Amino acid sequence: MRTHLRLRPSTIFGPGVTARRTLATVQHGSPFTSNSIFPREPHAPAVVTSSVPGPKVQEASRGIQQFQDSRTHVLVAGNYIVDLDGNAFLDVYAQIASIPIGYNNPDLLKLAKTDLFATMAMNRPALGVFPPGEWKDMVAFLSVAPKGLNQVFTAMCGSCANETAFKAAFMTYRDKQRKLESGTTGPVDFTAEELASCMKNQSPGSPDLSILSFKSAFHGRLFGSLSATRSKAIHKTYHLSIARPMVDWPAIKYPLEEHAKENAEAEAKSLRDVENTITSMKSTRPVAAVVIEPIASEGGDLHASPEFFRGLRQITKKHGVSFIVDEVQTGVGATGTFWAHEKWGLSEEDAPDFVTFSKKMQAAGYFHKMETRPAQAYRNFNTWMGDPIRALQAATQISVIKQHGLVEHTASTGRELYKQLDQLAKSSGRMLNLRGKDNGTFIAWDMESAGQRDALLKAMRNQGVNMAGCGDATVRLRPMLIFGSSQAEILLEKLDGALRAT
């Protein structure tokens, strides 16, 4: 049994905290620090129990265990969270990488008290049929839309975002085929046979199409997205699987700059495998889309070069296959650019067909092009079509991120943090395959075994730092965008001590 945390705004920030910097100060004054937003943020972790979890947390988990599995509890506030025992933790995991601008952010607390927020929460509209008059102004996602994409489909979670993108890719693929078959460029009506056969889950109305994903990928836990997920067996065992082809992630070696030749060969092999798979399946179960994460996060923070992703894009265009970029975990500034795929240098013409988002956006969905909007209504649809209060939350977060230059701040913080971690890795000899250079604070490394990794995470938690792992033996950092130099110093000090002690 682990631990869980509760948020305690009065303890950490005090009521009614509204201090913040202006954009001019951020741009022309001193660098951003989180206490400009959270003046009562703790200066350091404070573990007051003899071990973590403490007695009150254990008691609470036992109570929850009576009606809900509590074995997954870890830690249930800027950069710090406080548990039931009063332990204050520096949080570099951020609710599974989903908190962008800090716990109890005053701008978000202010939003929650507005009439519009309350009205949307209590009178939740079915956005696809009865959108409120304010909906157009509430959707701020397009202000940060990836280059080349001017449409957005709103959804409930990361899995939903990917599944609805999969559906859109299937529709797009088959619509293209129908237009070629009919020799027209306009919308093509369904045949009677298609309408009848789809109700029986049979062809031609339900064609055997597929989505190609990569080994170690994570795209969600619903049936469609789970079939494309390949990071851990525990996610998939005993679940219905929809056939999905898989290609190995390139066998990359780290540091990337020291293994350029081997990595280029590994990426070229992976690209050949992708094209061969697409070609070989055209007559059986055609590949309608390729889905990939810019960094395979749950699978162990696996990287590849911009050249690899550009090559992948060219293959998908060559074969008329949609290119889906899953930015659920990498998006919203975590890698030092708002979207991680910005680093690939794609032209607007070569932009991905779909970019999915969730987590740090606090809302979910996918960006796409007008040509991938279904010709008929209700083809990609559900009751809620997202959540208006999460759209309001996303709009406020985007405003705060821009106001305080938090993407640039994360890029700067990450560069210095990586340098310090590189020195620590070399001096300790225990941090293997450090990676994430020039990717903001999206940094990871391996330990020799899962046991060593888990022991390190426990030692860090006992010192007041909440962090997590992924893959087989990987430690990953997922701090919030407000994480800065003072928090980095604490992290490095505690990590040095934990490496020595474990």
Q: Which descriptors would you attach to this protein?
A:
3 domains, about 40% helix, disordered N terminus, Aspartate Aminotransferase, domain 1, Aspartate Aminotransferase, domain 2, about 500 residues, 15 strands, seven-stranded mixed β-sheet
Would you mind describing this structure in some detail?
The chain has 502 residues and is of the alpha/beta class. The protein has 3 domains: 5-104 and 405-501, Aspartate Aminotransferase, domain 1; 106-154 and 387-404, no CATH class; 155-350 and 364-386, Type I PLP-dependent aspartate aminotransferase-like (Major domain) (Aspartate Aminotransferase, domain 2, 3-Layer(aba) Sandwich). 38% of the residues lie in helices and 11% in strands. The protein has 17 helices and 15 strands. The protein has helices at 9-12, 23-28, 55-65, 94-97, 106-112, 115-122, 135-138, 158-182, 192-198, 223-228, 233-236, 260-280, 306-318, 388-403, 406-428, 450-462, 485-501, and strands at residues 5-6, 80-83, 88-91, 151-155, 210-214, 246-247, 287-292, 322-326, 354-357, 364-368, 432-435, 444-446, 465-466, 468-470, 474-476. The strands form 3 sheets. A 7-stranded mixed β-sheet has the order 4-10-9-8-7-5-6, with helices on both faces. Strands 1-2-3-13 form a 4-stranded mixed β-sheet. A hairpin with a 4-residue loop joins β2 (80-83) and β3 (88-91). α12 (260-280) packs parallel to α13. The radius of gyration is 23 Å and the shape is globular. It starts with a strand and ends with a helix.
